[in-house]
Structures are given as C-alpha cells and as structure tokens.
C-alpha cells in the first residue's frame, strides 16, 4: 500500500498562555481555522510558552477549553514550545557553525545610548535597532560569555514578500531592526527562532495570524533562508482595537471572551474578518456557513 501523501495545506494557531483568549485572539484563531478547513487542510494548535515568566498557570487549559467550546478543534494534540529546547539549540548550533550567529553582551540601555549617539532616538511602538556593537567585524567578543546570541544579517537584508491580504511587502531588516536576538540574555529562546523552527518541524505551509505580527515576517524569512527551511504563505488578519485605538491585547487588560452564546461570539469575530454570516444558535451550522464564505473570499491559499 502506498503511503498517504502529506497534506498540501497545514495551518496553525499559536497562542501564548499569558491569559484566556479575548476578542482579538479569537479573530486570528477563527481565520486560521477557516483557512485550513476551506482548503481541505490540517489545523494545529501550538502553545508558545517559551517566555515562561509571562505564562499564567492554568491559561493553556483555559485557551484549549475556549477553542473547544467554539468548535475550533485541532487535528493533533497541542505542541508546547517549552518542550522543544533541543530543536532550538540545534538550529542555533548550526547558525554558529556557519558563522551566522554571534554572542552579544549589550544591555538595552547600552543599545539606546549607542543609537542616541548616532542621532537615533527610540520611539513608541518602534523596534530598538541594534547598532552592531558586538559584531565580529567590529571587535566583537573573543569568548562565548554572552548575554544573548544574535543573527548576523547578510549584506543584502532587504526582504520582499507577499501577504495574501496586505499585498506586496518590503522591509530592510538591517535598518528596521538590525541583527536580532535568537537567544535572550536570560537564557530563554527568542520568538523569532522558535517560531521558524516549529513551523518547519510541523510542516506548516500557511500562516494566518494577526496583523501586529506582519512586521516579524521579514526576520522569519531571513532565518528560514539561513537554516535552509521552506517559507510558508502568509495572511495577516485585521486587528481588534480598544476604545483608545490601541490593539486589544492581554497586556492592555483585554477581557476574556464571553462564551454564554458561542455562536454569537463567532459571528462577532467573523464580522471583523468581513464575513457576512448571520448568527445561528448552532456553532456547527455557523462554522459550516463561515467555511463557505471564507472559501468564496479566499478561493486559493496562494
């Protein structure tokens, strides 16, 4: 008997267990689930818990329960990043061996001071651009006693990519963020490395996530290229904003979802995604109609 070919589409939802799902995170979860179902693919859930100081006890179980009540059930047991350190270390080892990662002793205050000396002042919501202080060609470190490890960006760090919703995107990563962190000064793995390694290991072909993460995509593409990994297709969903215009988030006190009427909660999230699917008393019936509406709006995943 011939083995079953791998699915052409694998998507994922990757929440951090820093609190329960809220209206904004539900929009991303629903979009990724709908995209996978509309294209006959698999949908996975990955718990991004590498930033352990921010993780809240019980949050993972609550998130999974919320997804279950909303009918958004993954096709495999959830994967936890906290259990995958060996994979991240292997990726960092490879980058070190290839001369693409270097140790760094700079503190945030030192980076701010170095940028200020160059006339670059930090601004709200903007990335803190690394000035290259510890790069090997700038003197660097002569031992491995590092606060953190950074990716040594190539000379051509201009990345063009296409978002299925936002269209053509471009970022000069060297000017936007500089050499970015792979392993943090506190020994924890950086989001960029963990997400790239996990997407490849899980065979993820399509990433559907919130628009606030679009700015991370160019960095992840550079890492994928450095590690010889495939680049998924990307779609970044609209953000849900609070009354003050800020992105709705757990850090800004976003309330947990009210699930007394799960189908109504789904309909509200669907409206943010531009789906004109009326409310229904049945979660299953609403989701079935939402899949058809998503398929009509996103006929092909590429």
TrEMBL record:
Cofactor, how bound (note): Binds 1 zinc ion per subunit.
**Pfam families from the UniProt entry:** tRNA-synt_1c
SUPFAM superfamilies given in the database record: Nucleotidylyl transferase (SSF52374)
The record lists L-glutamate as bound by: 12-16, 48, 191, 209
Provide the GO biological process annotations. glutamyl-tRNA aminoacylation; tRNA modification
Domain Glutamyl/glutaminyl-tRNA synthetase class Ib catalytic, which positions?
12-254
List the NCBIfam families.
Answer: PRK05710.1-2 (NF004313), PRK05710.1-3 (NF004314), PRK05710.1-4 (NF004315), queuosine_YadB (TIGR03838)
- According to its UniProt entry, this protein's organism is Methylibium petroleiphilum (strain ATCC BAA-1232 / LMG 22953 / PM1)
Q: What stretch of residues is annotated with the motif 'KMSKS' region?
A: 247-251
Q: Which UniProt keywords apply?
A: Aminoacyl-tRNA synthetase, ATP-binding, Ligase, Metal-binding, Nucleotide-binding, Protein biosynthesis, Zinc
Q: What is this protein called?
A: Glutamyl-Q tRNA(Asp) synthetase
Q: Which family does it belong to?
A: Belongs to the class-I aminoacyl-tRNA synthetase family. GluQ subfamily.
